[in-house]
Specification:
single chain, mainly alpha, TerB-like
């Protein structure tokens, strides 16, 4: 819970549900103009993107820009709001990633359709590929997320195949 929420000063913060994590609630508060369920969806979506970007413990400017564009386009947000959401998602992931990763993904899984899960999977690979290659640690994190989202293995492989040229594990070692 944020300090503003504790003081009762949070503007338009969406009502929390029993399954919300504090991480999702903080990001949702920044999305106070959206319908609460949509805000929770966008917050969890952004957090999961940041989870993959931070798999190697560094979020590059390219990854940040990719996440901002994805959140803006897929979330239907103005650019300024997408920037805030991505920054919050990255910060929350840095602070609470070890304990929140599974919880946020578990919260996202029942509210997302199969098509939305596949779209997220595509976005995870796209963010990972922005630095010229998908590191093995990022690839492994995407796989963990796909399992947590209950994406069938053949569908995961179908999306991953589109990024095979970006997978560092399949590249020849540099001399």
């Amino acid at each position: 819970m944020s300090i503003l929420e504790r003081l009762g000063l949070a503007r338009g913060a969406a009502a929390a549900t029993p399954t919300d994590t504090d991480t999702v609630r903080r990001i949702v508060a920044s999305l106070d103009r959206l319908e609460p369920d949509r805000a929770r969806y966008v917050a969890a979506f952004a957090y999961i993107l940041a989870r993959v970007a931070l798999a190697d413990r560094v979020v590059s400017p390219e990854e940040t820009r990719a996440m901002e564009a994805i959140v803006r386009d897929r979330g239907g947000l103005p650019e300024e709001q997408a920037i805030v959401v991505v920054q919050m998602a990255k910060s929350q992931n840095l602070l609470f990633g070890a304990t929140e990763d599974f919880l946020v993904t578990r919260e996202f899984e029942p509210v997302a359709t199969a098509d939305q899960k596949l779209a997220l999977l595509e976005c995870l690979f796209a963010v990972s590929a922005t630095e010229g290659g998908i590191a093995t640690v990022e690839d492994n994190e995407v796989r963990r997320i796909a399992v947590e989202l209950k994406i069938p293995h053949d569908e995961y492989i179908h999306v991953r195949l589109r990024y095979r040229r970006d997978l560092n594990v399949l590249r020849a070692p540099a001399d």
